[in-house]
Amino acid sequence: MNKPPIQTALPVLKPLSFAVLCALYSLTPMPAMALDNNALPTNGQVIAGSGTITSNGNVMTVHQGSDKLIATWDTFNIGSGAQVNFLQPGASSIALNRVTGSDGSQILGHLNANGQVFLINPSGVLFGAGSMVDVGGLVASSLDISNSDFLAGKNVFAGQGKGAVINQGTINAKDGGSVALLGSQVLNEGTVVARLGSVVLGGGEKITLDFNGDGLINLEVNDPAMGASVINRGLLSANGGTVAMSARDSQAMLSNVVNNEGVIEARSLEQRNGRIILDGGSNGVVVNSGVLDVSGRNAGERGGNVTMTGQYVGLFDNGRINADGDVGGGTVLMGGDYQGGGGVHEADSTFMGQDARISANALSSGDGGKVILWSKDSTQFYGGISVSAAGSQGRGGLVETSGHTLEIAGIVDLSAVSGQGGTWLIDPFNINITKGASSGTSSSSPFTPNAGGSSNLSSATLNASLSEGANILVCTSSGAGTSGDINVLDNVKGVGNSTLTLQAHRNIVMTNTSISAADGKTLNVSLYSNFNNSGNGSVALSNATISTNGGNLTISGAVQPDQAWASTNVSNGTGISLSNGTRITTKGGNVNLRGATSSTLAAGSTATAITLSNSTIDAGGGNISLTALQASSTGTGDAFVLTGGSKVLTSGAGSITVDSTNLGSGNGTRIFSTSNTIAASGTGNVTLRGSAVSGSGVLVCSTAATSAQTLSVSGGTLTIEGSSGSGRGVFIASSGTGVVTLNAAQGGDIFIDGSSAGDAGTTLNSTGTGSVINVSTVNGDITLNGRTGSASSAAGLSIRSGASGPGNGVNVLSGSGDISLLGTAQGSGAGVSFSATNAKGYNNVMTGAGGNITLNGSSRGGAALSFDHGNNLLQVADGVLRLDLDTPTDNYITHTDDVTTLNASGSGAVLISRDGLVHNGLLDTASEPTRQYQQAQAVGGAWSKPLAPDYHLTAVGSAADEVKIDVAQTR
After folding, report:
1. Residue 149 DSSP SS3
2. Rounded to whole angstroms, how far apart are CA atoms 178 and 121?
3. Could you say which of 79, 560, 602, 654 would form a disulfide bridge with 684 (CB–CB 3.0 to 4.6 Å)?
4. 969: Cα within 13 Å, side-chain hemisphere
């Protein structure tokens, strides 16, 4: 595993080692050397319970007759050649030995007991090098216990004894037994073993032990002591049990109260998981630079639990924590539990050095474990954490590295052979994803991060941790003058099939950077802003690249992403902005964007919900969903904007959906300016929906050849649906030399449906002299539908041209499919209107061989069908051109200064249903010269309002070129 080039800062703390060890070793130098090798305890007196004390040379025997015994001693020393044996009624029997003299106790020889021995000496206890203690259980304490508490089973130890408790020898408790070393200062440099039991080191002025009866002890330091500390430099072992080191220092200073420099092991044994607790209270420093081992390596075993809590918690140097398990990893908590919960004390700061390692892996099968690095203030992580899974069903574990400010340059392994990788949660205030995080330490303490308020996450760390199946979540909150932003300042690239989620309290910003999958791997990416759901949290990508290689991309709000919004409350801001060459490619993955503006924007705000400017989204076969909400009733901005040469593309079965809502005066969906494209080149659909209050529901606009707009499908359906209160429902416009192309190839259909209460429902408006609107299919159907309300004087469906010359203007063309023109006006406008701004305007509706044209016009207060200026052509070839008209007025068809041709070539026919009047109309067949029919001419020359229910008029011409006009009375 490559390690980041970070120099681990050693803890620069209160100089504990020298000061404390001077006090600790004040017991040992001369007195230990001067102690007679055969020395034994002196003047022992049994004051409670029953028992006898006998000596034979260098061997003393205490015969205990009662379950509990209390004895007092002037001294309690055992020379290196001496031995003291306690013969007790049973393993649960306890002998309390209290030293009343002023000298500390030195155990340099052998102490044996088949039960439990309590040794109390306020001046301290030393188990010297080479000493051997073999007991059922042991408490060695410089804190006293009252006789009454002892006899009542209340194991409360208290006092201001200044003596330390030191072990340099070997202490063994029987299986299921326990060893407790208690005092204001406790040091282990030897070996303490309590298999299936407990080893506890406690530092304070009042300590309570709770013997559970299963060999385990609960240790609680009730009152602190000045300069309290517990240190391990040797071996503490309680496999299948618990090792606890706990101390409380009454001095509110940065000092090591719990420090492990040796080995602590509580490995799983006989299906019993081990547990290690290092607890420094609310104002102590807890440090591990040694080994904490709760692994379960035998068949069927799981890793155990490690908890390190204090005001400051650190894993330094080559410190190791091992919670691996054969069938599942264990749990490691440093500074707190997940998200600060679980009732675990929260550290102010947590530190893990570069060379430190934590593992909670599954070894043969099963899931990875849980590792938490938590603090209320600052967490610095530079080492390595592994929670990998094993076996075909194993899932990677959980890692959290959280704090208000973070410095992260370590490595996390979440891998799983099954592909079900684990999760890494990173939870600070502001955070920057950068090329390299600093060491984060000041000259005085590793627990003081760099100033500035923002956290740093190394991109190298992030990249390496996006391993097979990994799920990494970066989640920010606000506080301490920060807003909870995420800034991607360096490129991110995964190494396996994985998921990256950025969840910001406020904004997510990417500028000139990329997030991409490894070659041949997929990366699911989610960018969630606005976690506070205040409407103030946007996502801005500028010259950015996101490439998922088959993974999905979601950009949305962080609260219920399928319903929430990335949102802006800045008057000219954007909820989701893709600009300056931003490119998103997913190669089959789905793309989902949900952008909004705040409902509280100031009047006149131009903010937009989603804007794509000079940017590309290419799903490569995946689906694309773009949902926009302009929520301010006084805002003037559009909901969705596509501009600046942007492209939204997919292929295969992928579809594209744009769905926008505008509650202000802007447009729902707006596509304009430099040439833009929305295209589904496979069998998928393209759907544009938009609703507005006073703007257009959907506006597609081209003003020059360089701003051509293209919407296209291949085998799917192109659908445009728009609605508006007082604006146009669907407005497709070209001016100047602008070109708008709506195209469906290979059997695809086009469906346009617009409605408006106060303006035209659907408008195709080509007003420039060289402008063009082309709506075309190869052999698919085309439907243009428009509806207006009773307050509108506009047409339901309006086709208007100002372009000069054939080929320009509005062209609705189908190779062999049917064309339906449907217009309904509840007001005074025409149902369907063809118009031009001048006599040279062209409007063409044409189908190829076999295609039919149906025009259905209905108006409550105007003409069912209106031709106003320009050149209008409706033409079928071997198909039927049918005009179906409905109006309560007599103005079924009106003409004003137009040249209109209804042409049915080949075997085609023209049918007009409903009774109507035609003014200045032209009917054309392929073989017959143009014949003008005037109203009220004789039968055979024109048609007039019928007098009979079924009136047929056949124009002059051959049977093949016959134009049949079927007028059916309906009133």
Report:
1. helix
2. 19
3. 654
4. 9
| Distances in whole angstroms, Cα of residue 775 to Cα of each of 288, 549, 674, 732, 743 | 73, 34, 20, 10, 6
**Which overall architecture, per CATH, does domain 12-277 show?**
3 Solenoid (2.160)
What is the rounded distance in angstroms from the CA atom of residue 199 to the CA atom of residue 230? 13
Phi, psi of 20 (to 5 degrees): -70, -45
Of the candidates 387, 349, 384, 344, the one whose C-alpha atom is nearest the C-alpha of residue 367 is: 387
CA dihedral 401, 402, 408, 412 (to 10 degrees): 10
Strands 217-223 and 206-211 come out as: antiparallel
**Which spans in 751-837 are helix H?**
none
**8 Å CB contact between 463 and 490:** no
CB distance 235 to 195 below 8 Å: no
DSSP 397-441: -EEEEE-SEEEE--EEE---TTSB--EEEEE-SSEEEES------
What values do phi and psi take at 217, rounded to 5? -120, 135
What are the pLDDT digits (tens) for 398-454? Answer: 999 999 999 999 999 999 999 999 999 999 989 999 997 654 443 346 887 655 578
Residues 729/761, Cβ–Cβ less than 8 Å: yes
Residues 6+ apart with CB under 8 A from 213: none
The span from the CA of 250 to the CA of 148, in Å, is: 28
pLDDT by residue (tens digit) across 325-370? 999 999 999 999 999 999 999 999 999 999 999 999 999 999 999 9
Nearest one of 300, 374, 381, 364 to 331, comparing CA atoms: 374
Cα–Cα distance for residue pair 54/86, rounded to 1 Å: 11
The torsion angles phi and psi of 465, rounded to 5 degrees, stand at -85, -15
Q: What is the pLDDT of residues 558-613, one digit of tens each?
A: 767 778 899 998 989 999 999 999 999 999 999 999 999 999 888 999 999 999 99
Retrieve residue 619's tokens. 């799903």
- Closest listed residue to residue 792, CA positions, set 818, 843, 756: 756
pLDDT tens-digit series, residues 616-639? 999 999 999 999 999 999 999 999
Residue 380 has pLDDT above 70, yes or no: yes
Q: How confident is the model at residue 479 (pLDDT cuts 50, 70, 90)?
A: confident
- In which band, very low, low, confident or very high, does the pLDDT at 958 lie, cut at 50, 70 and 90? very low
pLDDT at 943 over 60: no
Structure tokens at 186: 């406790």
The pLDDT tens digits of the residues spanning 654-680 come to 999 999 999 999 999 999 988 999 999
3-class SS string, 248-296: CECCCCCCEEEEECCEEECCCECCECCEEEEECCCCCEEEECCEEECCE
| pLDDT of 942 above 90 | no
What is the SS3 string spanning 784-806?
EEEEECCCCCCCCEEEEECCCCC
Q: What does pTM read for this prediction?
A: 0.86
Out of 33-42, 480-489, 887-896, least confident range:
887-896
Count, in order, helices (H) and strands (E) of the chain.
4, 90
- How far apart (Å, rounded) are the C-alpha atoms in residues 10 and 21? 20
Residue 682: count of CB within 10 angstroms of its CB: 18
For residue 878, what are its two tokens? 């071997």
Integer Cα distance of 564 and 560 in angstroms? 6
For 54, residues 6+ apart whose C-beta sits below 8 A from its C-beta are: 60, 61, 63
How does pLDDT run across 172-201, given as a tens digit for each residue?
999 999 999 999 999 999 999 999 999 999
Q: What local confidence, expressed as pLDDT, does residue 321 receive?
A: 99
Best CA proximity match to 272, nearest among 345, 234, 325, 316: 325
SS3 content of the chain, % helix, strand, coil (to 5): 5, 50, 50
How far is it, in rounded angstroms, from Cα 322 to Cα 915? 91
Other beta carbons less than 10 A from residue 634's beta carbon:
14
